[in-house]
């Protein structure tokens, strides 16, 4: 089109920004700062116990443990828990230490059926215990 308002490529001004020099400067600055920054590999000395602390069953500060054997029989400490869900909930509600601590760990035999572990966990939650965890062996 003759006489149009669009400039031709022959003599028109370039309005695009050339970002190549800016990228070169930024990468150079990044490399300079990476080299100049001191390394933070200082190790903090810590003391790791050589053996896990052993809990005495008569220790009043010990966490309560519900153990489940391979046959699915659950015990809270030394006392047996009922197989009936509602009776188990009532037994857990009557345990003063469990209700005051608000936490219990479940230690199940590896051969225990998974469903039995879930039933015991549900009973603990239903009895008002907010924190029910799983006990594990040290890796």
Shape: elongated
Please give the alpha-carbon distance between the first and last residues.
Answer: 81 Å
Q: How much helical structure, as a percent, in the residues? A: 25-40%
β content, as a range?
5-15%
How large, in whole angstroms, is the Cα Rg?
34 Å
Strand numbers in spatial order across the main sheet? 3-2-1-4-5
Structural class: alpha/beta
Query: Could you list the spans in which at least 5 consecutive residues all have pLDDT below 50?
Result: none
Largest sheet: 5 strands, mixed
How many E-type strands?
Answer: 5
**Number of helices, counting only DSSP H or I runs of 4 residues or more:** 4
Mean pLDDT across all residues, rounded?
Answer: 82
Order of helices and strands: HEEEHHEHE
From the structure above, extract its key features.
4 helices, elongated, alpha/beta, 33% helix, 139 residues, five-stranded mixed β-sheet
Give a structural overview:
This protein is α/β, with parallel strands linked by helices and 139 residues long. The chain has a domain at 71-134. Helices cover 33% and strands 14% of the residues. It is built from 4 helices and 5 strands, in the order H-E-E-E-H-H-E-H-E. The protein has helices at 20-36, 85-94, 96-101, 114-126, and strands spanning 64-68, 74-76, 79-80, 103-108, 131-134. It has a 5-stranded mixed β-sheet. Strand 1 (64-68) and strand 2 (74-76) form a beta hairpin. Helix 2 packs across helix 4 (114-126). The model has no long low-confidence stretch (mean pLDDT 82).
């Amino acid at each position: 089109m003759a006489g149009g308002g669009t400039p031709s490529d022959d003599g028109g001004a370039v309005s695009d920004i050339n970002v190549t020099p800016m990228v070169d400067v930024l990468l150079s600055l990044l490399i300079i700062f990476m080299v100049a920054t001191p390394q933070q590999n200082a190790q903090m000395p810590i003391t790791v116990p050589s053996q896990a602390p052993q809990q005495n069953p008569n220790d009043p500060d010990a966490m309560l443990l519900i153990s489940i054997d391979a046959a699915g029989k659950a015990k809270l400490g030394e006392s047996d828990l009922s197989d009936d869900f509602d009776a188990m909930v009532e037994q857990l509600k009557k345990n003063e230490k469990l209700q005051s601590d608000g936490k219990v760990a479940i230690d199940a035999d590896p051969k225990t059926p998974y469903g039995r572990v879930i039933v015991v966990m549900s009973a603990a939650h239903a009895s008002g215990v907010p924190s029910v965890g799983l006990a594990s062996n040290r890796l």
